[in-house]
Amino acid sequence: MKKEQRLAKEILEHIGGQNNIKSLAHCMTRVRLSLRDNSLANIKALKEIDGVMGVIEDDTLQIVVGPGTVNKVTDEISRLTGIRSGEAAEESFNTASDIRAGIKQKNNTPVKNLLRRIGSIFIPLIPGLVASGIINGAANFAKNAGVDEKATWMQLLLVIGGAVFAYLAILVGWNTAKEFGGTPVLGAIAGGILFSPALAEIQLFGEPLVTGRGGLFGVMFAAWLMAVVEKQVRKGMPNSIDIIFTPLITLLVVGMFSLVAIQPIAGILSDGITSAIKMILDVGGIVAGALLAGFFLPLVMVGLHHGLTPIHMELINTLGNTPLLPVLAMAGAGQVGAAIAIYAKTKNKRLRNIIKGGLPVGFLGIGEPLLYGVTLPLGRPFITACLGAAMGGAFQAVMKTAATGIGVSGLSLTPLIADNKYLLYLAGILIAYIFGFIFTYLFGFKDEMAENI
After folding, report:
1. How far apart are CA 338 and CA 441, in angstroms?
2. Which residue blocks in 323-441 are alpha helix, DSSP H?
3. Active-site option among 7, 21, 24, 27
4. Mind listing the pLDDT tens digit for each residue in 219-251?
């Protein structure tokens, strides 16, 4: 039996069986399960499965199995249960309110829910953003090295790398409407309206409209409003004409309101956020960089880090790059240093195997396997990893490194670093590695702590 088949089978055994799954999905490292009855899940047994690096109890049950593996395990669970990834199973018991009642109330704060919603919008887009960002970065790296940008192969690379960014507003609008229960194509149209090049030819209240004003914040709000208005219109619409008049009225009302109100308001919001972040990094310098990098791992821990994606995208849209991403990328680097220190000190075979499995992807910027499999369960190394990250973040802030696109952090982000500051970015990573190692080796880990793994 293949590893992925065994993992899928054992996961099903310890979550109450295949009939206890309401919906199935996955992100880059985690299998995400919505259960009908949360009490049937044996969390302790799940954590002890060989190949499971961690378990997070949230609005979904998230089982960390690592990149690459997660796709195959999810596919195998889908094959065994008949539930397609990203879809919900038919209800056979438990109402929606019963399921919601099983969610831990402490996780239902408005801010956390908002960030989770935003994460759900962007998580499906991340593979495309990462791949396209790396292609763009490699092409620009080649251009800086003297390659003719008019060469056919270079032009093709830039087209392939730039496609997702050219239509990102439409994709975000689609996912937003879908997330809030609306018709996805209406959300996609909201994104198309706000980013239409034709807006530059139109004057409203004596002022020309600006293509893309408000960025993805405006798109998400407009697409959300599409979902809300559509539901309200449908309530009073006869079934016989619903397919014609519900989308028609929704599109006209929200489309006009988006241009008159949403775009200007979202523009003020996006300008405020980008200006505030730039000011924090410019004025705060070394302290701001250290604090942002040092406190980023706790955000990753609860799965809310994807909520920052629209901020990165808006910084790129406004400034041409995001100075925030290289700083936050140091969180994973500090954790890599901490994991290497633990590997050097421990004699625990299982712990060493987990570290060996998590380190390669940790170097490439995917930190969940080390986070949930090593540093977080041990406790103190999580703190020393954050301290190592703070040192790297302070360096990145002082050196004013920035990224021209969204990508996985760690070494994989290097081609996307702006202004040819590749070596400075790598130096920051090395600093985070070194201090994560030193803090953990000297103060963060004793081998008897491995007995809890």
Report:
1. 8
2. 324-345, 349-363, 368-370, 376-378, 380-399, 422-439
3. 27
4. 999 999 999 999 999 988 998 898 899 999 999
pLDDT at 446: 86
Q: Which two tokens stand for residue 15?
A: 């979550």
**8-state DSSP, 322:** B
Please tell me the pTM assigned to this model: 0.73
CB burial of residue 111 (10 Å; 0-12, 13-18, 19+): exposed
386 is catalytic: no
SS3 162: helix
Distance between first and last Cα of the chain: 26
Give me the residues paired with residue 21 across strands: 35
Helix (H) or strand (E) holding 23: strand 21-26
In contact, 338 and 435? CB cutoff 8 Å: no
d(CA 22, CA 324): 37
Type of residue at 384: T
What 3-state class would DSSP assign to 410? helix
- The structure tokens listed for 103 are 């969610």
Task: Please state, in angstroms and rounded to a whole number, the distance separating the CA atoms of residues 32 and 54.
Answer: 12
Query: Of all helices (H) and strands (E), which one includes residue 32?
Result: strand 30-35
In angstroms, the Cα distances linking 268 to 200, 276, 310, 417 are 18, 12, 15, 28
Q: List Cβ neighbours of 400 (8 Å cut-off, separation of 6 or more).
A: 281, 323, 421
